[in-house]
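Hi X.,

You mentioned you wanted examples for the new student's onboarding notes, showing what a folding record looks like when two proteins sit in one file. Here is a clean example. The first protein comes first, with its sequence line followed by its structure tokens.
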Amino acid sequence: MRLSRSFLPVLKESPSDAQIVSHKLMLQAGLVRQTAAGIYAWLPLGLRVLNKIADIVREEQDKAGACELLMPTLQSAELWRQSGRYDAYGPEMLRIKDRHEREMLYGPTNEEMITALFRDDVKSYRDLPRTLYHVQWKFRDEVRPRFGVMRGREFLMKDAYSFDLDEAGARLSYYTQLLAYLRTFQRLGIRAVPMKAASGPIGGDLSHEFIVLAPTGESEVFYDSRFEEIDWSKTDIDYSDEAGLHGLFDQVSSTYAATDETHDEAKWSEVPSERQRTGRGIEVGHIFYFGDKYSAAMGLKVSGKDGSNVTPMMGSYGIGVSRLVGAIIEASHDDKGIVWPEAVAPFKVGLVTMRGDDEASVAVAEDLYRQLTAASVETLYDDRDERGGVKLGGMDLMGLPWQLVVGPRGVAAGMVELKDRRTGEKFEIPIDAAVARLS
């Protein structure tokens, strides 16, 4: 993309109303703009990040055997009355009426709707187990929306729902999602520690939340440093390996990790002091097993292997896709701006001409942009008639993993400068080697 033709409204000053780093940087770098309290428009740069996160989430759900569908944002109040949650949910639910005075709501979650869909179309044990998911916008009318996309009222979520014949099968589905989540966050370039959690209004007695460690996190966290030693993307467990999945759950459950809400001082004291870690964290995912709470309330039955009616056991699994954008920035930034993990960066390379009035530099930059684009290397080319320092500052702010800098002196010597945004290291490389290096 050419910066001269894009819509990337970078702010020169730090916004005064933003309280945390991610909110400030998302506004400054032109990722989002607020349109109402707690509601944001995603601008081109932010949307690219949002879509990349969603794509990784989808890929890992698909690998775990979940099937994608898409449920609407608006739901009938009658569904929620069947489960008993319509009046119990509280003022966070946005309740509305259509022109026929039918009560509707903007969905904060989808347990009721997915249960109704499953109830109406699945009749036999042969159709179980199943895990269904979608990536959809949700709305929760926070009384004090703050911190940008970290605690907004409208947000993008991946929510999945599992259906099994019995508790043993449901727990296996839970362990499957546990592994999928660990691998998802690993691919996103962040460390998210699974911590035993309270179930809240979702219900159930088995729940874990996934916490990204960041100094500005809302929750105080306590965890065993063993979680820092595990590369979940390389964990040799297949999703069909029941013993491996059980072993994974045992490993997670036996390694201490808790937020201040579930912290147990007695158990914490059993962790060797050299392995005790404390800090702050941001919740980016939450998984629940809640048995027949919704299936029983909404009359979901299937015929069992012996012909008797069976009420399926259920679980639900959420990832805050839009919240992850803010969480990643909170965990990965410096005093110059965002430092994106390469997997979710809006572009891999920022191409900069230091002198827009130098014909030789512009010719080299144009050729590099053509070659990088042809090689499918996502490149943001700053071809504007601006000072070089302004361009480099903008690239640091946007946080692209690599910067390719073209200047008159380098071009005269047949070289360009390559900068690693994360480490700040700079390399002089031959012009004709640049594309191969970045491919």
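Then the second protein repeats the pattern, sequence line and then tokens:
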Amino acid sequence: MKKLFIVLAMCGLTMGSMAQETTDPVQKYSVATNSFWSNWFIQVGADWNAFYSNEEHGQGLARSPFKSFRATPGFSLAIGKWFTPGLGLRTKFSGVWGRTVVDENKHSNKTWTLNENVLFNLSNMLYGYNPTRVWNFVPFVGAGINRNCDANCYSMNLSAGILNTFRVSKHVGINLELGWNFAESDFDGVSYSNIEGGRVWDSHDNKFYAEVGLTFNLGKATWDKTPDVDAIKALSQSQIDALNAQLNDANAENARLK
């Protein structure tokens, strides 16, 4: 599991540096807040899940995320909204094939997860809003519920991960996501525990996933540049000065005629 954490961290650092390289400083500018109905998006994706249960603690099972007794494909649907270029919310449904990992035999079950995520677009927050940026680096955190349909039980979970979006057009993007769901110990349908002390994640059920999908931006998907107040004030003052000059000329002409 330590290797998985290291992989996620290295991917995050790499993606962050690449997001910085794709920033065009000419395009950076302050933006005005849009209406509530603007900047919504829908995501669809396919993922690969690896389950790590609290019941396997101390058994020395293989940790590879590709072992058949802990790995399974899945899919996801999500809808979200950006409230600013750097801050958004997303509601995400994912499922539906899971694993109960108690030994090296494959134990399948049906599960789904519904999470609410807070999204932080660090590319926009750190380097300025750029509507044509190719790569956006978006860490997220959240919480939600899991449902194990086979065991007929619910459990709570916390979530965290890295969402990376690649711009194809104004309304379409490709997304690559790496994530972690940290759930209660009965997420996999098994309520007993082998834990006596140990690390925090060993006492809970964990799901790590890698996902690729599409993002569809709905309606107004960009942000307008805020007016330059100083420029407007300068323009207004110059217009006032021009009117005063014209009035002074007219008064001088009237005085000459008299």
